Every structure is written in C-alpha cells, then in structure tokens.
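Repro case for the chain-ordering regression, as requested:
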Amino acid sequence: MTKIILFYGRIGANFFVHFYRVCAYLGAAIGQLRYMHFYRRQVIEQMYRIGLGSLPLIMGLSMFTGLATTIQTAYQISSYIPKYIVGSIVFQSEMLELGPTLMALVLAGRVGAGIASEIGTMKVSEQVDALTSMGVDPVGYLVMPRLLAGVTMFPIIIIFAVTVAVAGGHYAATTMMGVSTADFVRGMKEVFRFKDVWVGLIKATVYGGIITLLGSYLGMETEQGAKGVGMAATTTVVASSSFILIMDYVLTRTLLKFY
Amino acid sequence: MIEFKDVYKSFDENHVLRGINLTVNEGELISILGPSGSGKSVTLKHIIGILQPDRGEVWVDGQLVPKLSRNELQELRKHIGVLFQSAALFDSMTVHENVGFMLRMHTKMTEAEIARRVTECLEQVELRGVEELNPDELSGGMRKRVGLARAIVMKPDYILYDEPTTGLDPKTAIIIGDLIARLQRQLKITAIVVTHDVKLATEISDRIALFHEGKVAAVGAPEEISHSDDDMIRRFMEGQL
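-- result from build under test --
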C-alpha cells in the first residue's frame, strides 16, 4: 500500500514540477516578446514552417472529415427531419469541435514532435549552449518564435480546415445524399453565429500554444542523446494530445456557457 | 583577466569542483589538463555564466559573473569566443550562416560586410570555398575549424577551447593545435584550452593548470609541470592517471 501511495505521489509531484517549469518557460517566452525586432527572422520562419507547412496536410484531412461527418449525419437523421439540417450539423460540428480539436491532434504529431526533436537535437549536441555562449537567449531565439507562430498560425490553419471540411461536406451531401446546394446553405445560415467562429478560433489559439510550448519545453529539457530526443518527441505528442482533450472540455464548457 | 576564487560546484551528490583557485592573465594561453570528470569543462561553463557556482567567485574583466544581470551577461558573452567539443555548429545553417551568426545578431553590418568578415575568418583557419556547405558535409577537423572561425568572428577578448582535439585523428589534431597557437600569436587573445591531450597542452601553452578531483593540483609553465617530482603530476603526464 505504501509503495502504491509513493508511486502515485511521485507521479503527482513530477506533474507539478513540470507544470511549474512549463509556466516558467511561458513567462520567459512572453518576456522575450520585448525583443521581437531582434528575433523577427525566426518568427517569420516559424510562421512559414508551422503555418504554410501544415496547410496541405490539414486541408487534405479536413476534406475527409467533412465527407465523413456528412455521411454520418445523413445516416443518423430520420426521414421526417428536413435534409437541410445536414448543413447545420456539418458546419457547427466542424467549426466548434472537429476543425480545431481533431486537427490539433494531428498537428501535435506534425508540429509538436518536430519542435521537440529539433530543439532536443540542438540541446544534446551543445547547440543550445553555443547560442547562450554567443549572447543569444535560447528562449528568445527558439521558444518564443515557435510559440508566437503557434498561437497566430493555428487559427488561420483552422479557418482553412473548416472551409475545406464544409466544402467536402457539401460535396457529399449533394452527390451522395440528395441534398440540394440551396438546402445545405440554408442549413448553414440557420445556425451561423459569429460566436461559434470565435469559439473555434479561441480553441485553435489555445491548442497552438499548448503544442508549441510543450514541444519547446520538452526539447529544451532533453538529455541522454538520441534516446532522449526520441522520448521528448513521444512525450510531446502524448502530453499535447492529453492537454488538448482536457482543454477541449474546459473551453467548450466555459465558452459556450459564458461567451 | 579571469579569476576563480574558491569555486565549488556539485550536481546532486557529485561534487565536481571542490574549491578551484585559478588566475588567467591577460594575453596568455593556459591549458587546463586533467582526467575525465575532474571538472575542466564545468569550469569553462562558469566563465560564460551557463553554470553558477554553489560557492565562491568567478571574475571576468573585473565583473563578478554570477552577479551579472541578464543583459550584462549577454554583453560579456559577446567578448568571449567558445569552441565546443563537438564544434556545436548549427546544423540548419550553412558554414557562412554559422560563422556570420553573431554578426547578424549583434551588429548592424550589411550582408556584404558580413560576407567579407566571414571569408576573412575562414581564411584565418585555412578554409576556403566552404561557405555554402552544410555542417554535415564537413569532416571532423573542418567542423572544428569552422567552429574556431565562428569563435573569432566578433574579435573576442577571450577564447575558450573545450577539448579542441578530441575525436580527431592525430594528424588533424596537430593541425588544430598549430592553428590555436598561431591564432594566439596573431590575435593576442587570452585563451583557455580544456584538454586531456598532454602533448597539445605542453606544446601550445604559456602555463598549464592540472585539475585533479575538482581542485587545481598544480599550475606552472609546461616545463615545470613536465619535470615535476610530484607523483600524481608525473603519473598524469605519463598517461597513467
């Protein structure tokens, strides 16, 4: 019994230590925003890599989520429910949930693991120490540009993702389900509220922050060579995905209730 | 001038530095010799403030390093060039970008001026036409030379060499050793070479500091150290420690 308590106690203590350190990195990265002009090249480069680099994958996958959501919705609704509802459900579920959350889970792998392994490799090969020795703050040079790119580019990626998903949903609805374009658009118009767009974009911003911050933190804390780099990448994907799903609940509950 | 006054440093239960006292004079090249784990590289990291001592003082140019603010520390680091054991070249950048990195970050030089200075530094380490290569296209010796060019690009007052010949074949190690000695003569920079290469240390140094179990066991001119009667020093110099 004592062993079990000690085991879970250690896990709990480790969690709080890491949580504190992540918050410290976040604070340091926000502090580095003062030196934006100094790191503008890195910020633009990261925006390009995280934003533009992710777009083809996200748009391709969004098309399939749109198609699947429509087919699923059409399958679930009864014959006496008007078909234009398909448009309503596809739009709202893509904007509020599937667009930001599902795509963030994909990006946790593509962006998060990439950041952790890149910074982790730099850490174990003394490149981070080299940066420090050259009078360049590694948080300013490596963490802040990625974090800033994450929180600014994720919402833009999600706008594209939702647009493509709705287009995919429209295609499935009109070609496979016998729903006319007019009905599909009518369904979307009936439920459209700016509030939903904001909720989706706020979620995307928070997820972008979680993924890039955790990837950067775990990369900067990497030790033990190649094994450590692999662990940092894996832990980033697992931790980011977990936090995304937890924050999905928190944000959905909070934003839809009060916003 | 660099001074260590009674510096202690531990990592958990591992007491790496146990009261280091050492003065590095202006313009001299001092080698820190010692077996693995004697605290040589940890000592270097205290000079640039990557590590803070648990106790004691580290002075560089009359500034107490552990007490410097973030900005003061960054300013100090611009005057110190470091050649890392692995060269630590940024693998996402070309040789040109690596060598010109500090100029781009800390000066208002134009790209043409940076290119000129980069070429000049590469020529000082006897490299030509490698500007557009990536670090993974370079041999071990070339990587060290690019690292050295990067270390001198800001015309530093100090250069710290961390195991400059480790991992190199004997011929390349001699070339790197000659290069360090030549740069020292040409640039008159205060330099600290951390190494376990006795031959390199005796050939290029003005003085040698021998580290043993986290303390400075002996300091003196290479001849004094080489001909010491002390049993521990003799055993180390003969490669038995």
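Ordering looks correct now. The interface with chain B takes residues 38, 118, 121-122, 125-127, 129-130, 132-137 of chain A (CB under 8 Å).
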